[in-house]
UniProtKB/TrEMBL annotation:
Domain of life (superkingdom): Eukaryota
Region (Disordered): 13-96, 109-157
Record-given protein name: BUD13 homolog
Bias (Basic and acidic residues) ranges: 14-74, 109-123, 136-145
Similarity section: Belongs to the CWC26 family.
GO biological process, one term: mRNA splicing, via spliceosome
Cellular component annotations (GO), alphabetically ordered: RES complex; U2-type spliceosomal complex
Species per Swiss-Prot/TrEMBL record: Oceanites oceanicus (Wilson's storm petrel)
GO molecular function: RNA binding
Pfam (any one): Bud13
Length: 199
């Protein structure tokens, strides 16, 4: 049998001897059992080297933290930085408004400033205020821009300098290029219409 005892019909002497042998064998292995009870499990990798589980857990935790930070950053980028700032500004404004009392009085400066900044249709002073704001903005240095007749188109949509006299001194390459692009587009459109004509 698997336990080492004989199978089938056996005498009492044989049975007694086998039991004594098993007890003696257990007593011999008792110290091994005590040692193994308090020992730590040794984990090994495929090549047979011991694995340091604490170090591996620490590395996994660091990788998980780095991955969560990266995912959080990508999530923030995916939502849009400007939208995130706008949302944060909206939250701050809402908190600021919640801290104010429910009843607004005539001497509330925030309400007064917000109402003054609103532009209403049919306001007779709106033109005056717009002109004053435009004058204030004009005082800030701006680069001069060309403001003559419409200049010829170019493929980069670059506006001419403010000193341009309006004379086209080009060799006509831009106009030829625009004509080629338009011709190619017209041919493609014609070919498409011809190919789906019978449908």
């Amino acid at each position: 049998m698997l336990s080492g005892v004989k199978a089938g019909l056996v005498s009492a002497d044989v049975l007694r001897r086998e039991q004594q042998e098993l007890r003696r064998h257990e007593r011999n292995n008792k110290h091994l059992e005590e040692e193994s009870r308090h020992s730590e499990t040794v984990f090994r990798d495929k090549s047979g080297r011991k694995r340091d589980l604490a170090q591996e857990r620490l590395e996994q935790r660091q990788k998980a933290e780095a991955k969560s930070k990266r995912d959080e950053q990508y999530a923030r980028w995916g939502k849009g930085l400007a939208q995130g700032r706008q949302q944060q500004q909206n939250v701050e404004d809402a908190i600021k408004e919640m801290q104010k009392p429910l009843a607004r009085y005539i001497d509330d400066q925030d309400l007064d400033r917000r109402l003054r900044e609103q532009e209403r249709e049919g306001d007779p002073m709106a033109d005056f205020i717009k002109k004053r704001k435009a004058k204030e903005n004009k005082e800030k240095k701006e680069k001069p821009r060309y403001n003559g007749p419409a200049p010829p188109l170019n493929r980069f949509h670059i506006w001419p300098g403010h000193r341009w006299d309006g004379v086209d001194r080009s060799n006509g390459f831009e106009q030829q290029r625009f004509a080629r692009v338009a011709n190619k587009k017209a041919i493609q459109e014609l070919a498409y219409k011809w190919s789906v004509e019978d449908m």
